[in-house]
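$ run holo --ligand "adenosine-5'-diphosphate" --emit tokens
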Amino acid sequence: MSNSPVQVNLDFVINPSYYENMTKEYITHDSKETQELGKILAEELRGGEVICLSGDLGAGKTTFTQGLLKGLGVKGPYTSPTFLIIKQYHIAPDMKRKTNTKKILKVPWHRFYDIYHIDAYRVGAEDVSNLGWQEIISTDKNVTIIEWADRVRDIIPSDALWINFKWLDEKKRKIIFNSK
Ligand code: ADP
Ligand code: MG
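-- output --
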């Protein structure tokens, strides 16, 4: 797979095999494009994923998460969990979701029910563990999104999807997907 940055093409779909040994890089040119990338990822999730976001303050982690939550059919507002540490969103099992291409997904939408959005900026691995981390990530009805995951690396499973955000300039961000 190519390691060179590619432009975000909204028709582009992240390969469903992203969970196996993947590195992909994108450049986004405004926050909307970063959200679109999150939406595209949302369409690929099947439940049980741990999505680890890393990168400096202002790099786009929360912006990406907003697109991801939107793509999953979660109704806003999607405030950052920075002061709450964890936010849980419940998705009704029979809920239909619109895909990026505006088609209704044919697959039954009951694979997962709960989305957890964690912000580990101010906490350590022990604090996250105490939230019931092991149970959350080992349930395939859950999708877990964790910002500042690199700060609690010890508790991240090896099959997690890592997404690193790099500030290039005022509007440009490099977003790198990595999985083992
Ligand atoms: P983080 O959660 O990593 O601290 P945020 O998503 O909260 O970052 O903030 C990113 C900021 O950068 C927002 O104010 C957003 O509007 C701005 N921004 C500008 N260009 C982009 C881009 N291409 N992708 C994401 N955010 C961008
Ligand atoms: Mg944030």
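-- notes --
The pocket of adenosine-5'-diphosphate (ligand 1) is lined by residues 28-31, 33-34, 55, 57-63, 165, 171-173 (CB under 6 Å).
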